[in-house]
Design a protein that fits this description.
With 90 residues, the chain is α+β, with helices and mostly antiparallel strands. It has two helices and four strands, in the order βββααβ. A hairpin with a 2-residue loop joins strand 2 and strand 3.
Length: 90
């Protein structure tokens, strides 16, 4: 079962790969996407960094940069979600 400690992801994608309300399997459980925003990386807050499970903004920037470099003006997807139980149930 997911612990639910991480509730936000930041992604650099050419196009959106998830949708609000969508449920996606993760290990033995699943997540449900609550909200999606396209924002400049500069809009990512310290609270967002904590919710993403990262120690600092630079670590989050590096993790999100798998599709290319991210500067403060780079648009990224800010994805809020919550954990569901085994089999994707609430």
């Amino acid at each position: 079962m997911l612990a639910g400690e991480i509730t936000l992801s930041v992604r650099l994608w050419e196009r959106l790969k998830v949708k609000e309300g969508g449920r996606y399997p993760i290990g033995l459980g699943a997540i449900e996407v609550d909200a999606i925003e396209l924002v400049p990386f500069s809009a990512i807050t310290d609270a967002d960094v904590r919710r993403a499970g990262e120690p600092d903004r630079e670590t989050l920037r590096q993790r999100a940069a798998h599709a290319g470099p991210i500067d403060e003006d780079t648009l990224v997807y800010r994805i809020e979600f919550h954990a569901l139980g085994v089999g994707g149930t609430d």
